[in-house]
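Per reviewer request, we include the raw input and output of the structure prediction for the construct analysed in the revised manuscript.
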Amino acid sequence: MIRTLLARAGLVAAAACVATLITAAPASAHGADAPNGTDYRTRAAGVTPARPGLEVRVVEAGARLELTNRTGRPIEVLGYSGEPYLRIGPDGVYENSRSPATYLNRTLAGDTALPADADPAAPASWRRIADGDTARWHDQRALWQESAPPEVVRAAPEREHRVRDWTVPLRDGTDPLRIDGTLDWVPPPDAYTWWAVTIVGLLAVGALGLLAAASPAGARALSALGVLLIVGGAVAVVYPVGRELDAGAHGVGGVLVGLLSGQVWSLLTGLGAIAAGWYALARRPGADFVVALGGACLALLAGTANAAVFARSIAPVPWAPEAARVMVAAVLITGAGATAAGVLRLHATSRAAAPARRVEATGRGATPAE
């Protein structure tokens, strides 16, 4: 029985790995190619001159700009050659199919090939792309796209640096407007320290599996693992909600749509870990297996998938990056620790059951005396 459960756990874990690889690209599609973290902080100061109902903010850890237009008039975003690029108005959001920015801004890297008819000097050809009054787009003017950091950063990487001030031109009818902002380099944290703390924590949680499952201490350990899985699962649910809020989602409906389209694995993993925790607290049959499986999925799909924040100064959530790193560390400690503890308890139970199986087999094989 135990070997069968372990075999099934291995199959499920392997399937989870495959699912993670298959869904790696779509998982970031809630914001096209939203980063898991960055060392460049993008800020928008606002629209100049100010227009009531016209608001701008930075989303997805600085990867995109978001412009909301409630003025009742169409507002145009101008491309890199001053051509009309986007139009946000009462009738929705439009893009100019002849603007090179329409294609260059489709990816964070700006590496989309331009079609033959992309010509900033040609008359605009508007194509409706969304309802509502909000547009979000990558803008190379607000990003650092080189593989190497700026020279000033290379000279003193331990310090914060202003990379540049940036401007995105807008147009309200014939009136020129602009979005002003800044781009700064922020030194990344020491990833080794965060990984060291995480490893020590998961080893401490995993050590709960060394307590004999049949003893009172072992029963308390199973309850502790259940509580930890519930907490870790709750954190794993909150983190992707934060990512959706940082990506510009509005209201409960917007967050749910974003979660189901881009963060579904992390969401389901968190909910599954909470269910596994309650199962362990109830001390149901097979609880050790459920703890091991729930912990493995939690660590893999919600922990390692977001571990980039250990090495990045800016996290894709609307709270402090230190809080984001603590949350990811908690998920990894809980998930990996519960996996180790569950496997240890399963192994100990299997070893304890082996002598009884041998005695039973010997008894069945004996023949009565003549």
